[in-house]
Amino acid sequence: MISFDDFHMEEGIPIYQQILLYLKRGVVAGEFHNGDELPSRRMLSALLGVNPNTVQKAYRQLEEENLICSHTGAKSYMVLDEKKVEQIRRELLKSDVKSVVQSMKQMGLSKSEALRLIQAYWD
Amino acid sequence: MLEIKNVSKSYTLNQRLHGKQALQSVDLSIGPGEIVGLFGENGAGKTTLMKCILGFLRYDGEILLDGAPITCNNIERLSFATSEHSFFPNLTAEAHRQFYKEHFPRFIDKRFYGLMEFFELPLHKLLHSFSTGQKNQFEVILALCQGADYILMDEPFAGNDVFNREDFYKVLLGILEPNETVILSTHLIEEVSNFISRAVLIRQGQIVGDVLACDLDESGISLMDYIKQTYHYSADRVSRALNDITGGEG
Amino acid sequence: MKTIDLSRLAPPGTAIKEEIRRLCVGLAGATGCAVLIYGVNYRNAYDLLFDRYGVDRVLRPDAVMPPFDALSWGSLTFFYFVALGSLAAAIFHHFSFYSGGSKSIYLMRRLPQRWELLRRDITLPIAGAAISLLAALLLKLLFMGVYYFVTPEQCLGI
């Protein structure tokens, strides 16, 4: 069963998106695999202390992206293959880099300054 | 479906004379499975509204449960937990279970014993010897186990520490069936903002806000901000209106 | 014999034994007062029927016993007080029961059983009042018995 023990709620981001991100990062990090069982909607809602509608929204989105498959009896399983994992990885990377670039721009850095910083901190 | 139609309530002659009412033309419909947070300042009318729903107070207007008025025939579908407590101080928890079971045949024994165990409450001690926090917990347990479809809770956690309350929200989310509805009036806005599916704001006896939690989520506004915005807006409206009305005079 | 579960006739958690004890004390007191008052009245009236000559006493020829009502007047008043008192105090106690510390009235008014609240509030007080009045009646009959059987026949008032 996929564990949500390390899930920490943040302010400002809709919770269903946080749940999506948590699962996607876990997939990319290799913690969650194809066929892993997710907690039922009700159980996850109780675990996190959030309304079941929120969990439902997250799960529905995962279903639409074909990342999970729900059977009758409230059980849901991850549906992954190499191609999908790679897709998620790229997706997450893209949004992470975008937000770093955004905050650097907000700080007033020029492109060359930004690249120099990255060079310095890469190693 | 619990339908509150154009409900008004005046308490005192003084109120009536001054055009103030405890509740003023309240229209609200609550469907099965919703977890509704009822917010408002002290005296806004939250408790009055609940007491009207339960039939403790007379009111103008209509309150219907699935199309029928609330009488002793369907009152068992409503349960109530209040910060004033409604249990019998000289009975034990087990004796309460028997009393409830006798009068509310849909009482859920399994849930009762499960919750009593989870919150480590004694079954065979008299209720008056419980601490305030334990009394609050027991009050809520009774309301949850009655077998009601609409569970009304009026500031049920006054006096419980934050860990207690968090536990409760989580357990509640775990045990509630899809057909069970909770109407919870509370001051603890931030705490319940993830827990509720809908927020209803009452101010001076009127509904000034009614929003679904997922809509708030989508718009990126927090519940606290929504409440602040709404109240501010209301006050502005009133002062502007007053300005218009009295502006020409002196 | 089927025992009646008294706890169903009073608000849940009431100390019924204590209430019964109080009723018994009240009744005992009222009985004592009644017997005392009537006893003294009757004894005095009885003595007046006779003339005393030293140790002997002789029934006066024109002796008439005062009417029963005159002799028994006032003796049973305390029973009425006990009856009224038990009614008022118990009903008040029962209704206020629901407001102190915990408002169990909110639960009682939510019960599908419409008459539960009323039944629990008035049954014992009314029973107490009825017992009180019944005891008064029985004592009255007893006093009447004493009056008619002990008084010499020729002295009985019309």
Core attributes:
heterotrimer, A: 123 residues, mainly alpha, Arc Repressor Mutant, subunit A, 2 domains, three-stranded antiparallel beta sheet, 5 helices, 3 strands, 59% helix, 7% strand, elongated, B: 250 residues, alpha/beta, Rossmann fold, six-stranded mixed beta sheet, four-stranded antiparallel beta sheet, 9 helices
Summarize the structure.
Chain A has 123 residues and is mainly alpha-helical.
Q: What would your notes on this structure say?
A:
The complex is a heterotrimer of chains A (123), B (250) and C (158). With 123 residues, chain A is mainly alpha-helical. Chain A has 2 domains: 1-80, Winged helix-like DNA-binding domain superfamily/Winged helix DNA-binding domain (Arc Repressor Mutant, subunit A), CATH 1.10.10; 82-123. Chain A contains 5 helices and 3 strands; from the N terminus they run H-E-H-H-E-E-H-H. In chain A, strands 1-3-2 form a 3-stranded antiparallel sheet. In chain A, a hairpin with a 5-residue loop joins strand 2 and strand 3. The mean pLDDT of chain A is 91. By secondary structure, chain B is of the alpha/beta class. Chain B has a single domain, classed as P-loop containing nucleotide triphosphate hydrolases (Rossmann fold), CATH 3.40.50.300. Chain B is built from 9 helices and 10 strands. In chain B, the strands form 2 sheets. Chain B has a 6-stranded mixed sheet with strand order 6-7-8-3-9-10, with helices on both faces. A 4-stranded antiparallel sheet of chain B has the order 2-1-4-5, covered by helices on one side. In chain B, strand 4 and strand 5 (68-69) form a beta hairpin. By secondary structure, chain C is mostly helical. Chain C has one domain (15-155). Chains in contact: A-B, B-C. Chains B and C meet through strand 6 and helix 3 of B and helix 4 of C.
